DNA sequence: CCAACCCATGACAACGTTGACGCCGCATCG
DNA sequence: CGATGCGGCGTCAACGTTGTCATGGGTTGG
């Protein structure tokens, strides 16, 4: 009966026509502006309801200029990684208090897709962008950044761009892990890491290397496996290490997914090696997994702080926030070297 | 030196002026249209680079009409819940293959915030919307839906709206859990559930009740605790159940967060009750946790399928897909009732 | 040598909204 | 009683882009 099917979404002009007022009055009535007669306002509202009208935010945004957007973008490697989702949670809560809405997109650690996502969000004129970037250069964002769009880099620093940044203390955390294990007497420590191109990986490796240097463990890199990007790869890597003639007496798993893979590999092992992981893992306390912990929510909150500050007009130079780490000894990291460890399998 | 600071983002007109061509030619050159002299094209490109120009997607979208958007929205309760993030992962992969970009926002199970997020995305004219809705009515979306915007409801069905839906087989899964536990001899089963208003909760409860009816367990609801929405609340709920004079000999934890809370509560327990959880949990296999499992990624893929079909112009009536569940017996669910269970604490 | 054609480019309008401004009529005030 | 004010409403232009149509110069072919 109603002829509104298929006609596309109705415009303000149609609402105005139906309610017998000018387009501008309809805009005023629906926009909550003051100078409208109550009777007119309700007539316009009725017409809008009848047509199923919804404001065209695209047109509004164009007319008003970019500063009215309430959307903030977050680009991360993987939604399903609890580190990122907790970071997103902390960020979101603080943005919401300011009426800003967080939209998150996953790059799958693909630099090209990351660029396309960033483009899509920037073209849509988001109010700001928070990125855990997988790319190796960010000059691409220089123009936007100069034009005043707030950028905050989290977890991984920008390259060739001076922008606000929130990082973990990767070096220190990994050094703690190394010190902890060598102090317990371990000399053969299996180290399993993520994609070698990631700055977090390199920083953690540096920190661990520093601990090895201090402890006088020269050949530690013999037990290093890199590019274990998912749980299954990590499990295989650990199984490989354990199968060696002189297997490691301890493991340092350099992120949460790798720790999960290691725990899977160690299942039912009669004399499991000691284990320290970077990042918290679910049920880590229940399972007694020693980890280098930190606070992803706080990272999100600090990122929100930097971003909101820029949105409020702060113009100073790029700032950098470092989130501390602390080692939680829960049992797995305190196991001594197995006596028979020198024997091959 | 360059006077481009603070001037806002440059427009096509400025690029055109700098390169000495008309706005339309600049548009053609940057848009990759064919009829442009190579030399002109590179001149325009240089000017764009120099100014740090980026296409204004808002204006383009307005000019071209909504059908060009490549953004699909996903609204979920909580980013940090692995069920949702895996669903998002499955959805995203299939959308990406079609060049569509998924943006995810978290409603925090707040119906009002959900509405505002949906409004923001719909006003921005996303190409489609996938919702795990926490609201109790969706007539609000009726107009958009009639105007052809594709909606897919996941995990929870729409109310007062006929739209495509992907659901879990909650009833069957919960019934399986109940049958499994009663078959092992349990008669006092602690049941811990999420917010009682959620349809998933009600469906699971119905399924469990059906199993109890068949097994002849009349007073099962005496051991029911609802509205345990986070891990801490679930832990408390389980501790409360265990502290009763006649504690349950088994637990049915109705979602993944609740299962985590229960595992925490059961830590170090000398004779833990049997446990079956709904949803998979990380390390569930390592820990030997019996669960009613399903495939969240598949849920995402099916949602993508329905959505893409609509985007491709399918106009049929609303469809409903049900994702099966299966019980994974890993140990925790097969523990028999503890003999001394009738004794109080 | 002129017609027919194509290529590169430009002028113009339109997408849907809102800010700036103007106009009319009625109430208020000196 | 005329000036002033203001409430209610309309007209117009502009945001930045792209589709349509037009134009001028060069090439091709009969």
Automatic annotation (TrEMBL), chains A, B:
This is Transcriptional regulator, LacI family. Residues 10-64 form the HTH lacI-type domain. It holds the Pfam family LacI. Coiled coil: none annotated. The keyword Methyltransferase does not apply. Signal peptide: none annotated. Gene3D superfamilies: 3.40.50.2300, lambda repressor-like DNA-binding domains. Keywords: DNA-binding, Transcription, Transcription regulation. One of its GO terms (molecular function) is DNA-binding transcription factor activity. SMART domains: HTH_LACI (SM00354). It comes from Micromonospora chaiyaphumensis. InterPro entries: HTH_LacI, Lambda_DNA-bd_dom_sf, Peripla_BP/Lac1_sug-bd_dom, Peripla_BP_I.
